[in-house]
Amino acid sequence: MLNRLCVVSLIVPFVLSGCPGHDSAQLSPLKYRATGNAPEVIALYEAWFGHPRHISIDYSSHDPAVINRQIHKAQAMGISAFVVDWYGDREPFIDRSYSLMQAAAQKNSFKVAMMYDETSQDDGATDEAIADFTMFHDTYLSAKSPGHEAYLTYQGRPVIFIFPTAKHTDWGKVRAVVDQWDPKPWLIYENLPGQNSEAFDGFYAWVEPGDKGWAADGSNWGEQYLNNFYETLRSKNSDKIIVGGAWAEFNDSKAAWGLNRHISSRCGQTYSDTYNFWRKEFPPDQPIPFLMIETWNDYEEGTAIEPGIPTCSGSGAPK
């Protein structure tokens, strides 16, 4: 439980002082911290709308006007970068979306990063990951790549997120390849350290209800999960980059892969609580480097904040 209630805004929650839950003197200081007095806020972006395999919404991910509008709205909400799901040449539609996003980000003083979705195939996963990372570097990160200046960096190095699926990739081998890049990237993996953890520079929280599982009424909003995520990394992995997670709700009823899972918005309280949860674990002088909102626009799993933060009076931010 929180030591005390932190008063927040629903759009860009802001707290004047932290709510640390432990004696910071008993723990090692974080090796990697935010460059300012709070984490840089980034948001996961789905770039598949307009593709027939996904639900139809009122825009296409290939529309430059839409992308510019999304960037401007995100900037107004205090978001500095979109982390775009990317699948290599397995998904040419999404690759095109990423290209448009990186170009628009550079024009709008915004940032963009890649979240690599691992293949679900058993055979050849490592070779495919190496080929995909090489393709991404040559196309989007090299000095000759259009818009490469817009790529999200930390301490001068590009930040790459990894979303695991079947977990057949040998990330140690991938790490050996990308370490030859100049500059070499930070590799950030989902959840807590596990298999191949030595290959990763950090870990990010993802939308989870915690050990109690998904509640039918959505009441398990992630308190236990975030508590365990932050406490474990702070106490045992303070030498890693910690990327916090924030979400407004979850409802996968519109997804083809949906399992009728729910996290209630609780009239906006879920967003406020998850957005500020990191303050409970870390003292004010040790803010984590990044906080990732999950998500900007995943309408299939019901986590999109693009329309605004849900409230009791309806979906959207208060006027």
Write a short abstract of this structure.
This protein has helices at 64-76, 92-107, 125-141, 171-178, 223-236, 269-276, 278-281; strands spanning 40-45, 81-86, 111-117, 153-154, 157-163, 186-190, 202-204, 241-246, 250-251, 262-263, 290-293. With 319 residues, it is an alpha/beta fold.
Give me the secondary-structure topology.
Layout: E1 40-45, H1 64-76, E2 81-86, H2 92-107, E3 111-117, H3 125-141, E4 153-154, E5 157-163, H4 171-178, E6 186-190, E7 202-204, H5 223-236, E8 241-246, E9 250-251, E10 262-263, H6 269-276, H7 278-281, E11 290-293
Parallel strand pairs: 1-2, 1-11, 2-3, 3-5, 5-6, 6-7, 7-8, 8-11
Antiparallel strand pairs: 4-5, 9-10
Descriptive tags:
disordered N terminus; 8-stranded parallel β-barrel; alpha/beta; disordered C terminus; globular; two-stranded antiparallel sheet; 319 residues
Describe the protein:
With 319 residues, this protein is of the alpha/beta class. Helix content is 25%, strand content 16%. The chain has 7 helices and 11 strands. The chain has helices spanning 64-76, 92-107, 125-141, 171-178, 223-236, 269-276, 278-281; strands at 40-45, 81-86, 111-117, 153-154, 157-163, 186-190, 202-204, 241-246, 250-251, 262-263, 290-293. An 8-stranded parallel β-barrel has the order 1-2-3-5-6-7-8-11, surrounded by 4 helices. The protein has a two-stranded antiparallel sheet with strand order 9-10. Strand 5 (157-163), helix 4 (171-178) and strand 6 form a beta-alpha-beta unit. Helix 3 (125-141) packs parallel to helix 4 (171-178). The longest helix has 17 residues, at 125-141.
